[in-house]
Amino acid sequence: MRFLYYDRVDQLEKGQSIVGIKSFPLSEEYFRGYHRKIALVPGVIFIESMAQLLGWLTIYSYDFSFSAVMSLIEGVRVTSTLRPGFTAEIHAELISATRRDSYGRARCLVDGKEIASIDRILYSHTRRVDPEALRALFNYYSGMERNMSWLSNPSRA
What we know:
The protein has a single domain (about 10-145), classed as Hotdog Thioesterase (Thiol Ester Dehydrase, Chain A). The protein is about 20% helix and about 40% strand. It has helices at about 45-60, 130-140, 145; strands at about 10-15, 15-25, 65-80, 85-95, 100-110, 115-125. A six-stranded antiparallel sheet has the order 1-2-4-5-6-3, with helices on one face.
């Protein structure tokens, strides 16, 4: 089982922004054993979706030279009444970055309507990484290895 809360990356602008897609079918693992009469998507899943995409944008923007660990979120707004069966578009942007940390903001949209947002996500950077392994994971998990071969060669980007 994978705990990625986005299906693919559709747009990526180094150092600026990322747009990804996440579908929310009833078959998601977090609905297993759901005991309410009406299944609702947990708000924390939206938060994790936005955080994962912004984290990858941060790592990608600095050529996979570190890993980003989410350390703070502020200004979270989540719609609590969404039932499975929809697809969300996740937009995230990098606001500022230093050698030690970075921060940005993100939002989820369904049919152009905002359903969740985070005003500020802060990441601490850790330097003990294998850049090539991290790059390979990003390519695989984001569905970009099939669609954007330029990603594996940053000098062509």
